[in-house]
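User: Can you help me understand a structure? I only have the sequence.
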Amino acid sequence: EVQLVESGGGLVQAGGSLRLSCVASGFTFDDYNIGWFRQAPGKEREGVACISSSDNGRTYYADSVKGRFSISTDNAKNTMYLQMNGLKPEDTAVYYCAADSYRAAWDYWGQGTQVTVSS
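Assistant: Let's start by predicting it. Here is the structure, written out as tokens:
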């Protein structure tokens, strides 16, 4: 059974940093695409960053976070991370990690973790 469990959210001042973690079980990162999404109040969920297993582990970022956020994995711990630097109030959202098994787009999701950036 695939499971994803996020942690690391919280309240931070603008300009600060947070690192989100997502512990995965039931699959290996080499076999699935993995990524981070976020949803702010009243807005649609959007992709933030992902690692494509089908594209040799290439990373992709939303334009809004390029240069500030970094996605990475620790395969030994089966954990993915989202390092967020230079946080802005507009980064406030619930952040979700997700996995794409190729059977359906982004078919596994974590429970989400709240990130709040104060101005």
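Now, to help you interpret it: The mean pLDDT is 96. The two ends are 40 Å apart (CA to CA). Let me know which part you'd like to focus on.
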